[in-house]
Structures are given as C-alpha cells and as structure tokens.
Amino acid sequence: AVGTDYTQPYTNDQLYFEFGKKEGLVNIVDDFMINLLADPRTRTSFEKFDQARIKAQLVEQFCEILGGPCKYAGAQMKPIHASLNIDKAQFNALVEALQKAMDKHQVSFDTQNKLLAKLAPMHRDIITR
Ligand code: HEM
C-alpha cells in the first residue's frame, strides 16, 4: 500500500517514465518542498519537520503510485497527519505547490492529473478540521 488502504498504483510504468523516472521525481519533489516552504498556508506545517526525510518518502510514494520499481515503506497517511490539524485550504495549497513543481518540470497536464487523481481521495485521511 502507498499510504492508504484504498490507493491502487498504476499497473504499468508508462507514467513513471513520463515523470522522468527516479531522477525526475527527485527534481519535482525538491521543487515541491521549496514551494511548500514558500507558501504561508503550508510552511508552518513543514518547517518543523525533517524535510529531507519527507521528500525521500514522497519520492518513494509517488514512484510506486506511478507504476515505478519502488515500494513505499513510510507511514500511513491517516496516522502521520492526524496530529497536524490540517484544513482544506492547506490541502489545496499542497496540490497547487505540486502542480507548480510539475509545470516547471514540463509534466503534461494529462500526466499531472493522473497523479493528482490518486492523491485527491487521500483528503479524507489528511484533512481533520
Ligand atoms: C495528498 C496529500 C498528501 C500526501 C500524499 C502526503 C504525503 C506525505 C508523506 C509520504 C509523508 C512522509 C511519511 C513518513 O515520514 O513516513 C508526509 C508527512 C508529512 N506531511 Fe503530508 N501528505 C499530504 C498532505 C499534507 C498536507 C496538506 C500537509 C500540511 C499542510 C502535510 C504535512 C505533512 C507533514 C508536516 C509531515 C511530516 C510529519 C511527521 O514527520 O511527523 N501533508 N506526508
């Protein structure tokens, strides 16, 4: 599982290749975290934690979701976010930060939406207020 009991990874590695494989994901997630730390809606959550560790976990999670050769071994989404008091505006800000990073790395709109479609349902494990 990739952090929830309902998220099914894509079953071939086409999307993983469209994201530029591991190297592409590392670059996208680096910019994603820069964007999260630049936005006041998300900075206050992320600044207190080990960002290098979170980025490494995000790369593994996205890699597995996109059908790549990875196995996410991080925390489940519900318990890890439970004490963070995350609202809908913060969740939306995170999606924007990811879109901005994917745009910068020239991931096509359709391909971006394939990843977002797997992340969006996670709102029910992450938003707690
Ligand atoms: C679909 C949306 C999201 C996904 C896929 C996601 C994914 C992740 C992952 C993979 C981790 C690392 C788990 C681990 O260390 O084992 C994590 C941790 C974290 N996330 Fe999220 N997250 C999402 C939304 C959010 C939002 C909206 C916020 C706050 C604005 C947030 C704040 C954090 C923080 C602060 C941590 C570190 C918690 C800790 O180490 O105790 N996340 N997230």
From TrEMBL:
Gene3D superfamilies the record matches: Globins
Residues noted as binding heme in the record, renumbered to the chain: H81
KW Signal (keyword) present: yes
The keyword Thylakoid appears for this protein: no
Record keywords, A-Z: Heme, Iron, Metal-binding, Signal, Transport
Membrane-spanning parts: none
CDD domains reported in the protein's UniProt record: TrHb1_N
GO molecular function: heme binding; metal ion binding; oxygen binding
Protein name as it appears in the record: Group 1 truncated hemoglobin
Lineage: Bacteria, Pseudomonadati, Pseudomonadota, Betaproteobacteria, Nitrosomonadales
